[in-house]
């Protein structure tokens, strides 16, 4: 449709879809201006609904209370509330309290909103298909498309909204049971066909005359669903089969459906939420997996924000822009949490070897919204039990427990991640490196890693990159290692060895990242003759006969690193540098023994690893950093990463440092808090190989949560250590920890308590309407 330039205020409003989001938006807009003409089209009857229970958070309820006390009071009368989550696996139940849920029946919610809309004078047109949004847009000031995950409005105008729809790996069915669970229940069934799970929660309380009711969702991987024969069962037979599979959870009771069918969840993302005077709301604009219970919550909050924006802004274009500006960050954060939760359940079989209580903690923290710290506030007894199982001495946070790699015992689980400083001269680290690495060694981390140290002059990324290919460089590194070992004797120092490959001969990062030098370039080499960016120099494709010389450069650098006294060596096989380029099918197009299959692409990195391991002292550990995904179509995948990790472990790697991306310039990473940790998680729990997790881990609470859930063994942090060289010591102070896992240098001991600060009162996020 050609967008209608909207101007002025919204007096005539059309709402497509009579779900909770559309109805609530209609009610709010009519309440704010009784003179408005608001019409809602709903194709179904008033009491038709395809779900059972709806969960709303206290935050959402607070917004409803401020915006419309009448709706809030009506909902309060219907809510069933509970605090506990039960996780049942293998007949063992672990419970965690203090979570605070509120739920009601979807029919009850719709009835409340229907009544409110009628009282306010909203025109509700049931059993009526809405005219196309393009037609409504010419007759109404504003069109709100709340027409669900299968939005016809969105599908009719893909060029405007630019949707991305992603289907996932599990099948699920939405059912109900005629009794009230006494907690939010997750039950795991390990069957002959594979793992299945039940998600259940009450939405109607039991009374003297009625048993109550609960939502029950049964979910499993697609291949499990097929192996179990569900593809051949009709709906009644599927429902009966689910009741038998989870008879213990249901107490032998039956399940019922409401036109229920097996579905595959689809994540909906739109580049734009409005087009002209048409705006998307709720599932039409975005979806979040049901395992974090946010669909209705997000739609109701959308309605609140849209109504507020229309009230506050001078015209419709400004209002729609303000609505999207306010809501998009919230939605994107929720979708990241939902994606993490969804992926956790997809990979659930990899966690079945975990002890039951750790498994329960892992499930509770799967979305990264519930963390170790706030779970301890909710249920200290449960969290302390998980800590004891993990091996935490009393009063010791998980991050301050030791970890051993060969003969090296790290005093805590914090790693200062490798960070290129681009400050060496002719590859020689100078005073800057001494201060930089020395400060971080004094800062309390168990392991401090150097930047990528290049194994040859032509293996540098930039002229400012450090090396270990001359004796002068080795002497400079020895000075730094000696300082760290003398002044911070409980801190280990690790060296990361690498070769830039096709990403070399570029400017310093702050002068133009990945841009070729204007002069003084050196020749580039790679497995295949493919430039990194269209503006990059084209590398020479290495012949098989040239590979031994590069392998020997790594060996020479490793010998120098051992003599310098480094405690650990990491082989850099990530981020698109030379060894990484051999691993990725996007950068390795070879047809000889060093290309083709993953086995072929692994050949040269493994040859280098073996040669380095042979000269690296046996008591000292070796790790390997990999890019677990290229974030690009046709590139390395998480499945490949598991195979790569297994291969390096079989050759003697003591841990895998799991990063992602930076292999191709057109990558599309799914950025977000701890966004790379699921790859480390999968490698650890699928292979049993120790891992180092990296990627936007920014708080000590994140570190504790990841460790206690069994998703990683060590956590590497980069930017937090640039912000605060003493990040680990400050994490100890903030948690009141004074044990051996965080030893303050005597010179700094007077500062080991957190300084007092003045009071600050930040405004709370606005999710409600004023007045």
TrEMBL record:
TM region(s), chain numbering: none
Pfam families: FAD_binding_3, Oxidored_FMN
Annotated signal sequence range: none
Region (Disordered): 744-771
SUPFAM superfamilies to which the protein is assigned, alphabetical: FAD/NAD(P)-binding domain (SSF51905), FMN-linked oxidoreductases (SSF51395)
Residue ranges annotated for the NADH:flavin oxidoreductase/NADH oxidase N-terminal domain, each copy included: 399-732
Domain FAD-binding: start-end pairs: 13-335
PANTHER family (alphabetical): BLR3436 PROTEIN, NADPH DEHYDROGENASE C23G7.10C-RELATED
Stated name of the protein: Bifunctional salicylyl-CoA 5-hydroxylase/oxidoreductase
Species this chain originates from: Streptomyces flavofungini
